[in-house]
Amino acid sequence: MLRDLVGNASFWPNFPVNETRILLRKGFFVWLQALGGVIFGQLDRILLGISLGALVVTPYSLCVQFAHPIFGLSASGLNFVFPYLSSRASTVPTGALRRIVVRAVICNLMIVVCGAVLMLSLGGFLIRLWAGPAVAENASNILPPIVAGSALMGLSVTGTYALQALGDFQTVAGIGLGGRAVMLLLMFEMLRKHGLYGLAVSRLCYGAISLLVYLPLLQKLKSAAGESKRVPPLAVAIETPEVLEP
Length: 246
Hints:
Helices cover 85% and strands 0% of the residues. By secondary structure, the chain is mainly alpha-helical.
């Protein structure tokens, strides 16, 4: 059936120079961000194990794993935002584009709030069932900041997808990698001063930094709105005779 649809088209891969260059230029920042996420995502547990011992890693890792779906559900549930916005970025008015972003942010907020409330309500109970009362007791004071950090990261999903849909992959990668670097530096200091709780608070700070994606997004939407208000002189010259006709 595929052959009937495409006819005699060749299925051998082709790599045109210009298209490949564009793909690599745009994809490089996404791949760099993903690589940074893999590396930095494990350093906190390695650092904790070296500093305080392997036993302390258990409650921290469980809290991180239980809180991560707050971000994961937002990222997977709203992954349609990127193709939806990118297909309309150059075709719909800026006001309509802003309304789409606002609706996506509201949906994002609802997902995050529901997930955070559910995790704060049941997280301790689930950890107790999973690892026992001793681990649950150690995790009780670090679960709230870790859940809050994951919730803030979840709130950044719409801003990340929207900014990428507008073509600004570099800014998204810079904020993501810069935030993780700041979190890593903060981890050393917080872990030294406050132990396990300080490490949990450092994740909260990283979640707050991830919300910075909304600043360039608002700037882009604002600048696009300003440009759309400027009517080209040629358009005025073409439209005027039609208006004056009886």
